[in-house]
């Protein structure tokens, strides 16, 4: 998948960027800037004064003075809309809401309904201001991401630290980060340890403590002491740059609901325009007491109501709110379409290592036979110190000082293990085949252990074993329970680990369907078999590296460890930044809440519009009801969409 390269200079804070819904609206105004409200305030003040003068039938407020007064009241809010409508017509786009509002309000002036003409345009302008504010509110979480952009990097050059733009730093350079500063680029920690606030990246407020040699991500805030890192990526390829790029462009991938509403609005609007023309002239042939002014007034009401504003604004805003709420919770959707897709998932397939387990070997059990555990482990650690195998690393984390135990003549026996001399004793460390090859009896109890097991013999006598296992993530069990509660009954685990271990983990989690010992292509085949049933809507959760083919083939690909995995960012549709499988449940809930609000807005907009359209055509609704059907419903829909920013999903 080809991605757009991110240029830091192109990213502006929210207040500087123009926002467009591609619906003819221009939301580039600043709702927090009082200047944006001045035209509406002027029009409102003059409208109220004019209505008061009409109500008290003031003598001088007649004829041309009255017309000029309301015309001046109309201009501050009406002129920009009329101008925009004219510009759209010149571009060949006639049936915009600007055109509709212009025709309806100018028509109201023509038939002498001056206060209503001003009021319709005023409420429309106020609605636009509210929409601007709502869009800004929905963008607040993404603006928080923009605020964590590092502005400078202290890079070591010419025997001194020099402040430069992060874009100017090359791979392999040493960068210093002071307390309270943002890490400017992805890198490896050179200092002994560091504590980092990664809340803006992962949604987690708990500081993350990192040891020397571990990865540090751009955008993290250094909490503890001055640290040094060695950069591993250029800024344009860093985690924060990719996340910014993805979130900024997420709304480009429209949901099917959104696309349908936009297409519908483009057909619906001209139909209503022609119906309004019909309402004006057709009654002449069927009504005895036909009065042109009355039927024109009904047609103008028809035009005001026909604006699809509530639909084309509140629906994208609903999805934008869902995307923002998800990013606040450490979940990145690559587009609104995947918010929709998450609501339809009924089958969940998951990897084991790195998804429900931590992907790190830990000692689960130490069994020494005929030896003190501490001495037994010292002999074992002395041998394993010579190995780089992940199991050896897990054994070396055992808390025991073995400095007086030194291994000599250590050799590797292919496929079986290690042999060496420690303090004059011959040590064998490895699997059962190694023991049998040296005529060492192994207790039968070891045969029932499904996890990785390291057998140890000292001076040709069995001395014990160590069980090594991958740890379950803290929220793994609750995730499976929560998935069942949200209606995901079909859960399957596919793993490259040996089948016995996979089955044991599945039993611990309560997953009935599990298969181990699979290659990447085997996993893909299993998912393809599931896809043969058209009723299955499949999400796959993996670590995004070996599972890339399955992530791409699933209806929704969900990647764990998005900050650290290039393949996850590129291939998956949804990124769980915190590595917590429980966030998948939250992603489903956010998708469902978003879809619910979107359909509430569709029902509200259509329901009210149809009712007022019928009343308007029958002469039972005035321009004021038309204003509510357009701007009022749009505002209600927007307020409903903004609720997503206040929701909590646990």
From TrEMBL:
Query: Which PROSITE patterns does this chain map to?
Result: ATPASE_E1_E2
Report the EC number(s), separated by commas if there are several: 7.2.2.12
Query: Membrane spanning segments where?
Result: 36-58, 64-82, 94-112, 118-135, 267-287, 299-320, 597-617, 623-642
- Positions the record marks as coiled coil are none
The UniProt record lists the P-type ATPase A domain at: 149-248
Q: What UniProt keywords apply to this chain's record, in alphabetical order? A: ATP-binding, Cell membrane, Membrane, Metal-binding, Nucleotide-binding, Translocase, Transmembrane, Transmembrane helix
Q: Which reaction does it catalyse?
A: Zn(2+)(in) + ATP + H2O = Zn(2+)(out) + ADP + phosphate + H(+)
Q: Which Gene3D superfamilies match?
A: Calcium-transporting ATPase, cytoplasmic domain N (3.40.1110.10), Calcium-transporting ATPase, cytoplasmic transduction domain A (2.70.150.10), HAD superfamily/HAD-like (3.40.50.1000)
SUPFAM superfamilies on file:
Calcium ATPase, transduction domain A, Calcium ATPase, transmembrane domain M, HAD-like
The Basic and acidic residues compositionally biased stretches are: 7-28
Q: Which domain of life is it from?
A: Bacteria
Q: Where in the cell is it found?
A: Cell membrane; Membrane
Any single Gene Ontology cellular-component annotation: plasma membrane
**InterPro entries, alphabetically?**
ATPase_P-typ_cyto_dom_N (IPR023299), ATPase_P-typ_P_site (IPR018303), ATPase_P-typ_TM_dom_sf (IPR023298), ATPase_P-typ_transduc_dom_A_sf (IPR008250), ATPase_P-type_domA (IPR059000), Cation_Transport_ATPase_IB (IPR051014), HAD-like_sf (IPR036412), HAD_sf (IPR023214)
Its Gene Ontology molecular function terms?
ATP binding; ATP hydrolysis activity; cadmium ion transmembrane transporter activity; metal ion binding; P-type zinc transporter activity
Residues of the region (Disordered) are 1-31
- Say which family it is in: Belongs to the cation transport ATPase (P-type) (TC 3.A.3) family. Type IB subfamily.
Which PANTHER family does this one have? CADMIUM/ZINC-TRANSPORTING ATPASE HMA2-RELATED, CADMIUM_ZINC-TRANSPORTING ATPASE HMA4-RELATED
Q: What is this protein called?
A: P-type Zn(2+) transporter
What is the species of this protein?
A: Neotamlana laminarinivorans
